[in-house]
Amino acid sequence: MSAALPGSGIFKKRKQADIETQVVEAEIPETAAKTGLDLVVAWSVVGTFIILASAAIYMMEAILMPVTLAIVIGMVLGLAADRLAQFGLPPALGGLLLAIIFVVGLFFLINALIEPLTSLAGQAPGILERAIERVLPYIQRFEWVKVAIAGADEKAVTDVAIQNAGAMLGLVAAGVTPAFIQTLIFIAALGLFLVGRAHLRKTIILAFATRDRRLAAIRIMNATENAVGFYFSTASLIYVVLGSITAAIAFAGGLTMAPLWGLFAFISSFIPYLGVTAMTVALLCAGLMTHDALLLALAPAAGFFTLHLVMENLVTPAILGHRLEINPFLVFLAIIFWTWMWGAVGAMLALPLSLIAMTIFNEVRTQPPERQLPG
User: Is the pTM of this model over 0.85?
Assistant: First the structure.
């Protein structure tokens, strides 16, 4: 038997450690630093994806717009259905009940607006002619306007405007059928989303393999629903107050159908920038057709515009700002993008979609301190 040399065991351990170190280092390949060309390629891929996704969203407007609107409203009604579940009502049944109430209320609202809007459409040529007669004396006070319309016959201008009004009404009528189809898609999507909301959440959660990712999915879904629900519930209360005050302004300003003006103010407030602009112009035209004095004609529009400025710049940030902090510039870009994509409905969805994106980003970026169920 051969005797072991002193220190041979230590030598073997050192040799084995050196081999293991070489193996570990060999399993970690050195990555070369990214060059400018690599960054250009990466951003080109991202840019191409954004362009293709935007093109798909734009081309599929007829389907994606009502479905997206149904999902956003369904998230709000889903929270209400969860509250009803505390009284023993199943969430699916509660969601279906809320969807029926919402659709019936929407139907009665449209039915109530049909008569005044039909009467207004029938009187549109006469209203436009009277508006031109009222507005032209004020416009002609400016020298540059006189130069622009020099040599033009006022009667000819009025006739052309009336003829174009008929064409505009024809365009509106041509858009009724697509709007009706999109309304049906919205109603069907809203009902199915609320009925299958619990199963859809379960499917999304089980789509992730690990427990941590499932908990993160639950946390993200809860956070997005709470953010959107808080926004719509709080904004609705604020805009109800704004609509009520607008109805009082219209009544004090001598305008007819004052409650209808309040309703339009409430609805238009959910459409950033476009809503207040349309309401101000409409009140201005109504004031010019109602009063001969310029100050009285401008009073309803000026009152509403001032009220809206106060509500949007003081009241709304004071109530919503402590929970919903979004960069105003990013919101402005989102409004421009979604308005270009889907028109007025896109402008209305811009802020909720921004809230959803911001909430998902914050939840993904911020890791919870402990592995626990989201509460």
Answer: no
